[in-house]
Amino acid sequence: MKQLEVEIMGQRYLLSCPEGGEAALMKAVERVDAAMCKIRDAGKVKARDRIAVLASLNLAFELSEAVEAQRATTAMAASQPTPGTAPAVTDDQAGHPELNQLLQRLDQALMDDSRLI
Question: Is the pTM of the predicted complex or chain greater than 0.70?
């Protein structure tokens, strides 16, 4: 495992990452940072933990919609088989474990932050 120092909403975190997963982790960090900053900048929520929960819910909702859209596309393609069609996506592949791992790391980092609320 490799450790990367990242910054999310102005706070630094040290995250573990498997070798070769640095680019995917950094992309996830950028998405989380953008989601959290958008909520913070709207000015309605100030507490870091609440911002993190709202950002997590927004990202999970977006992911759920994308998975459902992909399933619908896959189901439609399966009903009309054509040569060269990509294989169907399984539930395991569509589960996005990287997002789940990032959300767990975010929860842990927020639990360690004594300045919440």
Answer: no
